[in-house]
Every structure is written in structure tokens, then in C-alpha cells.
Amino acid sequence: MSESPALDAAQLHCRSLERALGLLCRDGLGRIADWGGRLAAALPAGSRLLAAGNGGSAAQAQHLTAELVGRYQRERPAYSAISLHAETSSMTAIGNDYGFDHVFARQVSAHGRPGDVLLLLSTSGRSANLIAAALAGRAAGLHVWALTGPGPNPLGEAAEEALCVEGDTTATVQETHLVAVHLLCEAFDAVLAAPPGAAAGRRTAPHERVPVDADAVSVNGSLR
């Protein structure tokens, strides 16, 4: 303990974040690499990514779609990625007419096509509107992925696949989600840049420690 409560709080927060990132590196890189590879196969073939979240998770989802429609680091074509919560007129109309639990599910039913990917972000994994969206996505033939806080949780169970981040606080989970989003972009770009057929047929187990490429997930041995 120091003489500064503010400094103590900051150091505690950083230790919590360091632990969460360590667990993500240990347990989550295989799944992120797998998702990045599958996105790199789906989006250039004409499928799209739909993403959604509430509050800070909405910002994370929109961050991801912006990286895909624009670019992350490498110059590449634009790919179709839509943040459902950014459709404000649809959100408010559906919320008003059907209730807030349906604001994402109805959009998934409207925009989703078999083979598309639906990525749902939630620090709690308990948001009813995201669970409803996961069920709607699976019924429509989308690949439904969830990025959540500690598991098990209802959203992770409703999704086809989930990456559950262990964190001591909501803030720590959210910050770790941002790293996961960037790593997903790293994986996506790395697979697109690989020679044709280099990653064909390669699927990683959820907890397999396989780098997309060592330089794609680290800089000088540490996370971006």
C-alpha cells in the first residue's frame, strides 16, 4: 500500500488486467485464431458479419465492424460487417413496438443469411436481447459466436461457440475484450495475407495454443 489511494487503485486495476490477459493468452488464442480464419474464408466469399452488444460492449462490437469495413493495419478490400445497435431507427422502432429484448433478434432475422457470422459481446453473458439474437441467428442458419465474461453463462450456452473471458471486474473484462477484438483482426488479416492454401483445412481446438503467426499476435513478445 502506498500513501496514495488513487495509485493503489490503479495498480490493483493493472494487476487484474494483467491476470485476465494472461488467461486470454493461455486459453483463448486458439479460438480467436480459428474464428479469424473462418471469417477470412466467409467474408471474401460474400458472407457478412453481424455484431451487437449493449453499452460498452456495443462500442467494442462497432470497433470490430469498423476495422473490417475499413482496415485494421494492412491495406485490403472492404468486407461487409454491420453493427446492429448502430441502426438507431430500427432499434428504437423495434424496442417501441416489440420490446427491448427483441431489438437485435428481429434485425438478425431481417439481415442474416445462412453462412453469415453473428458475434455477440457481453461482459455478463446475461443480456436477454443478446440471448434472443443468438437463438434467432441459429434458427436462421448463421454461425453464432459469443464473446463474454466469466463462464458458464446463458449467452455462451445459447451461442454455437463462446470465448469466455475471466476477469475480476466488468472493466477488466471489457478491456480484455478489446484485446480479443484486435487479435481477431490480426488473425483475419494474417490468413488473408497467407499464400493460397496455406491454412486450408486447418481448424484449431478452442484452447489450442496455435499462433496465427507469432508476429501477428505479439510485438516484441508482448501483447499489443
Blueprint (SSEs and pairs):
Blueprint: H1 5-27, H2 29-42, E1 49-53, H3 56-69, E2 81-83, H4 88-98, H5 105-111, E3 117-122, H6 128-139, E4 143-148, H7 154-158, E5 161-164, H8 170-193, H9 214-217
Parallel strand pairs: 1-2, 1-3, 3-4, 4-5
Helix pairs in contact: 1-8, 2-8, 3-8, 5-6
Can you put this structure into words, describing what you see?
There is one protein chain. By secondary structure, the chain is an alpha/beta fold. Helix content is 51%, strand content 11%. The chain contains nine helices and five strands; from the N terminus they run H-H-E-H-E-H-H-E-H-E-H-E-H-H. It has helices at 5-27, 29-42, 56-69, 88-98, 105-111, 128-139, 154-158, 170-193, 214-217, and strands spanning 49-53, 81-83, 117-122, 143-148, 161-164. Strands 2-1-3-4-5 form a five-stranded parallel beta sheet, sandwiched between helices. Strand 3 (117-122), helix 6 and strand 4 form a beta-alpha-beta unit. Helix 5 (105-111) runs parallel beside helix 6 (128-139). The longest helix is centred in the C-terminal third of the chain and has 24 residues, at 170-193.
